[in-house]
Design goal:
Helices cover 20% and strands 26% of the residues. It is α+β, with helices and mostly antiparallel strands. It has three domains: 95 residues, wza like domain (wza like fold, 2-Layer Sandwich), CATH 3.30.1950.10; 77 residues, Outer membrane lipoprotein wza domain like (Outer membrane lipoprotein wza fold like), CATH 3.10.560.10; 103 residues, Outer membrane lipoprotein wza fold like, CATH 3.10.560. A hairpin with a 5-residue loop joins β6 and β7.
């Protein structure tokens, strides 16, 4: 082989390996192109069979499913040496088109559905195909990989400084699931009693943040007698005192709520409706949800 060709080969293979470092694994139905350097008669473009094998020009098949293009290149090189066709082959495998060319986006997006993509795309780009998040979307989205079945959880922050690298990649055949965010309820003597989505950057909401979102406590409220009500695993409720007045004065530490928590701020003794735990829980079930 001429020195110039060898240099070209080295640069070509290195560049291809780098470009495909994050490639989707080859799967049934994918169309791949095989280039055998300096032996063009062995080049071919063919589709991977349902059994995951690629028919070769010289006869026979080779299993390529679940391999990256780089690993597939090495597998064909090994096969050529084992069958004594070439002593030192250099092979490059590239995916021409994917057998599954849709990304499926479900859950809390404006337009759930399957969208055609024929190349890997950033997660944010894929979500934009579905119109982006709804007001009730949890920003911790789940990507299920077609090739491995792996479920990967990503935070899509609306403040890019919180997540330096948001260039996560989705591939044809992947499924994106956008869950519904948790809801907390602020009831009683507040400006806007109702339910509030926990859809800020970290999908968390503290007591003071929730009360502020609800318009704060009214002048007739008794925050020193506030209560927090939580669901139990058996479907019941448990009620605790909430030291809201001390939190507002900075005397007690604020804390993060859990999904379906209910904060109840009682009215003044003159206006007190004397709601019990069951009545408060029933009010939460019919509360208006205020999406941001």
């Amino acid at each position: 082989m001429r020195p110039l060709n060898w240099i070209f080969l080295t640069l070509w293979v290195a560049a291809s390996a780098h470009a495909q470092k994050e490639s989707l694994l080859i799967g049934p139905g994918d169309q791949v192109h095989v280039t055998v350097f300096d032996t063009p008669e062995l080049d071919e473009t063919a589709r991977v069979t349902d059994s995951g094998e690629l028919p070769l020009v010289l006869g026979g098949t080779i299993k390529l499913a679940s391999l990256t293009p780089a690993d597939a290149s090495r597998a064909i090189e090994t096969d050529l040496v084992r069958h004594r066709i070439m002593n030192n082959p250099h092979v490059l495998v590239t995916v021409v088109s994917y057998g599954t060319q849709n990304v499926t986006i479900t859950g809390q997006v404006v337009r759930p559905g399957a969208y055609p993509i024929d190349t890997p795309r950033p997660l944010l780009d894929a979500l934009s195909l579905a119109g982006g998040f709804t007001d009730l979307a949890d920003r911790h989205v789940i990507v299920q990989r077609r090739s491995t079945g792996e479920r990967v959880r990503y935070l899509v922050a609306n403040n890019p400084s919180l997540v330096p690298d948001q260039n996560q990649i989705v591939y044809p055949g992947d499924t994106i699931v956008v869950p519904k965010t948790g809801i907390v309820y602020v009831l009683g003597d507040v400006g806007r009693p109702g339910g509030y989505p926990m859809n800020n950057n970290d999908s968390g909401l503290t007591v003071l943040q929730a009360v502020a979102a609800a318009g704060g406590t009214q002048t007739s409220a008794v925050p020193s007698h506030a209560r927090i009500i939580r669901h139990t695993d058996d479907g019941g409720y448990v009620e605790d005192r909430l030291e809201l007045s001390d939190m507002q004065k900075g005397k007690k530490r604020d804390f993060t709520l859990e999904p379906n928590d209910i904060i109840y701020v009682p009215f003044s003794y003159i206006r007190n409706a004397a709601l019990g735990l069951t009545g408060i829980a029933a009010s939460a079930s019919s509360a208006v949800i205020y999406a941001k």
